[in-house]
């Protein structure tokens, strides 16, 4: 009658683990547990693995600890599902997705267009004609097109934090590659690294639509996201992931700190380059996919680079005008 | 005199056998209680010592049960002391400078953390929250239950589920 499926043993072991930890666990419970461990050698071994796993989670570094707590301690679970693209779901977004977007591309009369740039390592504060406040990250470019019907921003590269003056009759829409973000009374941050986009909402709500559409494919849905949520758009998968983020984390870059949650090293490097006069390059493409979580001070990139080989299997070669990150394995072979 | 020497010898043999047969389980039991392997090993040593020096062997039925009972009580004492210490530490001014510029403390395995996050996302929100509060933050079941407005039994159920789920997830990833 003993359970033989390893998955079953794992569940039973986890169950024993919580029962033994309960302050009211009786001597009888301990005896029963002991009997269970003697039934099959795998039982105690599995229990020990649970112990080990729990111990490793108690000794997480502060950044990881905090990011996990932030991500999963919220009372409202982040919605992870696409809303179906139906007429009922969002008529407004439909207008925005087709006619509205085209209209902008054609530069309707009465539209004013303004281009904003920032230099490497220089953040810039901008007040738009409608009073909306924009903090533009370093080495970033955006255009603003304002008409009587719509306010449209295109983030061409980099990062920007928007505190939008809400006008119900004139939507505020930020485009970033395939993604469009429509404000519903809001403050939010948009970071565009190539075609990869992350959106962090610090106040209110936004509606995010994926405007990419491949031939023969149904149009994708839109997603409503509220304060405290972080959406990452991965162009390779054409998918969005919803997680959580604290407001101070989303705008940490305004205080010279870049925060990354599960971002590929290539994205981390591209964003650091907006703040570094000595550009970083990744020589071996297999390093691109390494996933990084943590914060980096933009005024201490060198220190971070010095410690990087302890975390990832890579080598850092610093030259006067550039820094090369290469695979530690390949470096040995050369 | 002769009698008591004989009793002690029998008793020592018994403890040697207990150690051989159940030490691994005793340490696992204590590690589960204390969330620390080194503390578990220390407390186990102390428990053997207590059993070895007991003077009422005849009053105790199963020596094995007695050993685990003594060890369990020692663990409770230690948790209590630890709590006093951490309350004291919490009352001290915090030190926020945690070397954010260096990624050194990510060395545990960045990929594993990413995996854990994905595994937790697959779970019901209550399970992942209970897991984070109890296993990662180290809060008692009672505190988690109160915060989440659940019974302690439900909290334990969620934590056990999440634990098995995440552990299984990590196992899959560890396969070559």
Automatic annotation (TrEMBL), chain A:
InterPro entries for the chain: FecR, FecR_N, Ferrdict_sens_TM
Name of the protein in question: FecR domain-containing protein
Q: Which residues cross the membrane?
A: 82-104
Q: Which residues form the FecR N-terminal domain?
A: 13-51
The FecR protein domain, residue ranges: 116-207
Q: Does the keyword ATP-binding apply?
A: no
Q: Name one Pfam family in it.
A: FecR
Species assigned in the record: Dyella acidiphila
Domain of life, source organism: Bacteria
Q: Keywords for this entry? A: Membrane, Transmembrane, Transmembrane helix
Q: Answer yes or no on keyword Transmembrane helix.
A: yes
UniProtKB/TrEMBL annotation, chain B:
Sorted alphabetically, which SUPFAM superfamilies does this protein's record hold? Sigma2 domain of RNA polymerase sigma factors (SSF88946), Sigma3 and sigma4 domains of RNA polymerase sigma factors (SSF88659)
Q: Where is the RNA polymerase sigma-70 region domain?
A: 18-83
Q: Which domain of life is it from?
A: Bacteria
Task: Give all residue intervals belonging to the RNA polymerase sigma factor 70 region 4 type domain.
Answer: 116-166
Answer whether the UniProt record assigns the keyword Membrane to this protein: no
Per UniProt, which keywords does this protein have? Answer: DNA-binding, Sigma factor, Transcription, Transcription regulation
Q: Entry's InterPro entries?
A: RNA_pol_sigma-70-like, RNA_pol_sigma-70_dom, RNA_pol_sigma70_ECF_CS, RNA_pol_sigma70_r2, RNA_pol_sigma70_r4_t2, RNA_pol_sigma_r2, RNA_pol_sigma_r3/r4-like, WH-like_DNA-bd_sf
Q: Which family does it belong to?
A: Belongs to the sigma-70 factor family. ECF subfamily.
Q: What is this protein called?
A: RNA polymerase sigma factor
Species annotation: Dyella acidiphila
């Amino acid at each position: 009658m003993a359970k033989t499926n390893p998955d079953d043993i794992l569940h039973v072991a986890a169950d024993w683990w919580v029962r033994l930890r309960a302050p009211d666990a009786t001597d009888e419970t301990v005896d029963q547990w002991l009997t269970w461990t003697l039934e099959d050698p795998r039982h105690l071994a599995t229990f020990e693995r649970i112990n080990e796993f729990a111990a490793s989670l108690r000794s997480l570094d502060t950044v990881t600890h905090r990011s996990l707590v932030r991500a999963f301690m919220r009372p409202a679970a982040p919605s992870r599902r696409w809303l179906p693209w139906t007429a009922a779901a969002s008529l407004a977004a439909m207008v925005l997705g087709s006619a509205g977007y085209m209209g902008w591309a054609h530069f309707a009369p009465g539209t004013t267009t303004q281009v904003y740039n920032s230099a490497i390592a220089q953040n810039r504060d901008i007040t738009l004609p409608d009073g909306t406040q924009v903090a533009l990250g370093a080495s970033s470019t955006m255009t603003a097109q304002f008409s009587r019907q719509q306010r449209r921003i295109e983030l061409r590269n980099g990062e920007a934090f928007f505190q939008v003056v809400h006008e119900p009759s004139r939507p505020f829409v930020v485009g970033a590659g395939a993604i469009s973000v429509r404000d519903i009374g809001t403050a939010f941050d948009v970071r565009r690294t190539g075609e990869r986009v992350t959106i962090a909402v610090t106040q209110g709500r936004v509606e995010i639509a994926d405007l990419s559409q491949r031939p023969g494919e149904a149009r994708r849905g839109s997603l409503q996201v509220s304060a405290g949520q972080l959406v990452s758009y991965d162009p390779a998968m054409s998918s969005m992931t919803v997680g959580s983020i604290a407001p101070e984390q989303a705008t940490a870059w305004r205080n010279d700190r870049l925060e990354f949650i599960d971002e590929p090293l290539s994205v981390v490097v591209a964003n650091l380059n907006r703040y570094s006069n000595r550009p970083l390059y990744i020589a071996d493409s297999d390093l691109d996919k390494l996933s990084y979580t943590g914060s980096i001070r933009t005024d201490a990139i060198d220190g971070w680079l010095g410690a990087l080989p302890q975390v990832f299997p890579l080598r850092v070669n610093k030259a006067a005008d550039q820094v090369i990150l290469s695979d530690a394995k390949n470096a040995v072979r050369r | 005199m002769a009698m008591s020497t004989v009793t002690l010898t029998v008793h020592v043999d018994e403890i040697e056998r207990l150690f051989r047969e159940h030490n691994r389980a005793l340490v696992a039991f204590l590690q589960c209680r204390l969330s620390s392997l080194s503390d578990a090993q220390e407390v186990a040593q102390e428990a053997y010592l207590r059993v070895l020096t007991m003077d009422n062997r005849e009053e105790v039925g199963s020596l094995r049960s007695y050993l685990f009972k003594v060890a369990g009580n020692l663990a409770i004492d230690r948790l209590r002391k630890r709590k006093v210490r951490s309350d004291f530490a919490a009352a001290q001014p915090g030190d926020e400078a945690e070397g954010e510029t260096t990624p050194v403390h990510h060395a545990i395995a960045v990929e594993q953390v990413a995996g854990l996050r994905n595994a937790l996302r697959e779970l019901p929100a209550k399970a992942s929250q209970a897991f984070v509060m109890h296993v990662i933050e180290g809060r008692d079941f009672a505190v988690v239950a109160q915060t989440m407005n659940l019974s302690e039994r439900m909290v334990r159920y969620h934590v056990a589920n999440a634990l098995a789920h995440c552990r299984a997830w990590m196992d899959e990833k560890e396969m070559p």
